[in-house]
Amino acid sequence: MIRQLFWLASVFFTLNVAETLNLPFANVFEKGLYLLLAGLVLVLRRVDPVAITLMIATLILTIVLGLATPFPKFSWATWLLSINQFAIIYVLTGFHATRDDADGILRATTWLPVICMIGGLIGLGLSGRPIWGIEYATGTMRLQGSQIPAFLSGLAANGIVASLILGLEWRRLRYLGFTAVNLIILILAGGRASLAVAMIASICVIVFSKVIHIRDKLMLLTGGLLALPFFAAIAVPFALRRLATSTDNGRNAMAAYLQTLVDQYSWTGIGFGHQYWQTPSDVVVLVGSAAAHNDYLRLTVELGAIGMILFFIFMSIAMMRGAMRTGAINWTVIAAWGGFLLNARSDNALATPAYFPLLIVCMLPVAGGLGRAGSATPSTAADKPAPKGLAAAPATS
């Protein structure tokens, strides 16, 4: 049931169904499926108590600051509709997945960039919606499929890492073809931060895996070095074109406005989830969005400087806890968390399901062995021992 709901939530977001059907509060509707998934996980699976404790601490932090803020437009309804943004991450990265859970999540994540492209082609045929997006304020063409280029970039980065894990650690070699396909999609989507995250996480999967033989590691790394000139010939000119045409996309104006709110409400912020709804129309026109595209600045506006720091400290502790779930360090989780923090600097990483699934993927147990250092979740079922490194599925699923 968990893997089916993960598929449903992921495909719903990837195909952009909420926006296609003109549903109000589309992001909340999309996140609602992930929130339902998190609720199901809490009922059917064991979740790390430290992750739950830190989630509650974050919840209390937002409540205290909400009670303390003098911001006249603070709304508990807005706060309630926003807390899913951190609750989902804590639960889905803190639960002990079964083999079936891991299999379903990895396969779904691998397929999503391709599904996004198929959905984009269907949309092109039915409504004329282009599969190439034009970057606001620069005119740069970027592949978008059924989503937008930034989100497709995040999905493709996640898909690269998931397909590598399936191909190399689960010994399903056919999925390595998805690694190449997703890499091409990522390059054409033009996500520079997502590309860097995918490369670093992929290297960690290969280097730190206990399943992959040292000979195979050397072959893979050597093959990567040999393919580097070909990769650079495709990626570098595209990246240079983006760099040459890039502007601040109006984000300096956004930052200047948000700084006025920081100056006014520096200790308490204006309330978690409120920044989006307070952006004036002239700034929205310049940026093309009401979102901050910088989660550090956004949370400073919403929680104050100290609240923002505590928010990321709590979440970082949860990620480090997950990275050391069995005592050894899972460097792939650390790389994924570093990538999330990188994306948070230039995008709305907390508010979109395009980025946090990489954290879930890297926390999953690995079939057939110990996997990456610290990634396995040993457990036993009531009737039969689970494979080493895998949690056994309870009878309720």
How far is the first residue's CA from the last residue's CA?
Answer: 6 Å
Largest sheet: 2 strands, antiparallel
Uncertain residue ranges: 374-397
Describe the strand arrangement of the main beta sheet, using strand numbers.
Answer: 1-2
Estimated radius of gyration: 21 Å
| Average residue-wise pLDDT | 83
How many individual β-strands? 2
What overall geometry do the principal axes of the alpha carbons give? globular
Task: Walk me through what this model shows.
This protein has 397 residues and is mainly alpha-helical. It has helices at 2-14, 17-20, 26-44, 49-68, 76-82, 84-94, 99-127, 149-169, 176-189, 192-208, 214-245, 251-264, 275-278, 281-287, 295-323, 331-346, 357-363, and strands at 132-134, 141-143. Strands 1-2 form a two-stranded antiparallel ribbon. Helix 4 (49-68) runs antiparallel to helix 15 (295-323), helix 7 runs antiparallel to helix 8 and helix 10 (192-208) runs antiparallel to helix 16 (331-346). The longest helix is centred in the middle third of the chain and has 32 residues, at 214-245. Residues 374-397 have low confidence and may be disordered.
